[in-house]
Amino acid sequence: MQASHSDEIRFQRWLVVIGTLLLALKLLAWQLTGSNTILSDAGESVVNVLAGAFTWYSLVLSQRPRDLNHPYGHGKVEFLAAGVEGALLGLAGLIIGGKSLYNLWSPQPLQSLDLGLAITAAAGLANYILGSLALRKGKIANSLPLLAGGRHLQTDAWSTLAMVLGLGLVLLTNWFWLDSLVAAGFGVFLMYTSYRILQPSVAGMMDEADEALIKRFAVVLQAQRRPDWIDFHNLRLIKYGRMLHVDGHMTLPCYYDVQQAHDEIQLVDALVASEFGQRVEFFIHVDPCLPSSCSLCVQTDCPVRSQLFERQLEWTLPLLMENRKHKL
Question: Domain 211-321 carries which CATH code?
Fold first, then answer.
């Protein structure tokens, strides 16, 4: 069952509130210890809060209905939100890595490290729990911002664990330069995470083909295929937030009138809507069959058949995406 958009907005609001409290805890831990590593962790939390606030806004905006200026709706702002989060994370990684490399040459003493470690570990555990909840919500709602935020929070939690272990080693050895080394490694890790978040965001803004989604669409069509659905080609699926726009060319018998062709498209619409939920908008162009279509057509009572039926082509992902009518 899909979560409502309002549930997503409320959940994201709580993520921002709790993220702000965790940021305050990490800043307190940094003030107590003077650790570059803990400062790095706090720097990522600043990104969490800023990106979370933008994601909150994007979810509110994407809920607005279509208007004259946005005929496809406002859903693409969700890709922008994920992109902003990834960009901020990459910037934080650059700044943290640069400062840490500088401090490798002039390591500074640390203080109250045991208390700082306890506070940082507690904040990391909270981030992991929040990240798991965000991923669960994001998968149910198919929400890119929540999925990106959840991966970011879980990454934050694992990196916090690594930093706690690194600072534990500093506590045992008094090798203060390890603090900057761990922080530098964390900066590199942040830049890698930034890349992983930015990749699907840019793909969405560029309308890159979602092969997994098209494959699922192909399976649904093939499983419920009717005899008069002779061919389907030039299929394109574009996501705009929660809305899925589908366009393509469907070949129907050439002797169908407009009403019959419309009824068949409505059947496809209902079929896909039942599989993907009420998030699908169709723009299907109807093509009349040609004599070359006869070899693919399974209809037994066709009044215009000019060639014998040979075999029906299975609607697979590459076949559906071809921009041409199919023939044997």
Answer: 3.30.70.1350
65 C-beta neighbours (distance < 10 Å), count: 7
Q: 106 falls in which pLDDT band (50, 70, 90)?
A: low
The span from the CA of 25 to the CA of 159, in Å, is 16
> Which residues, other chains included, contact 291 with Cβ-Cβ below 8 Å and sequence gap of 6+?
306, 307
| 209, 66 Cβ separation under 8 angstroms | no
CATH number of 5-205: 1.20.1510.10
Alpha-carbon span 233 to 321, nearest angstrom = 6
- pLDDT tens string 179-197: 777 778 877 877 887 888 7
Domains 5-205 and 211-321 share a fold: no
Contact 309, 294 (CB under 8 A): yes
Check if the beta carbon of residue 327 is closer than 8 Å to that of residue 295.
yes
The domain segmentation of the chain, as residue ranges, is 5-205, 211-321
Query: What is the 3-state composition of the chain as percent helix, strand, coil, each rounded to the nearest 5?
Result: 65, 10, 25
Identity of the amino acid at 72 = Y
**Residue whose entry in the numeric block shows the structure tokens 């399976």:** 219
Tell me how many degrees the CA angle 231-287-204 measures, rounded to the nearest 5: 75
Structure tokens at 313: 């082509």
Cα angle, residue 166 at apex, residues 50 and 197 outer, rounded to 5°: 35
DSSP letter at 299 equals -
Average pLDDT of the residues in 164-184: 78
For residues 103 and 35, give the distance between their C-alpha atoms in angstroms, rounded to a whole number: 11
Cα dihedral value 88, 148, 10, 59, nearest 10:
80
Of 288, 292, 245, nearest to 269 by C-alpha is 245
CA–CA dist 192, 2 (Å, integer): 31
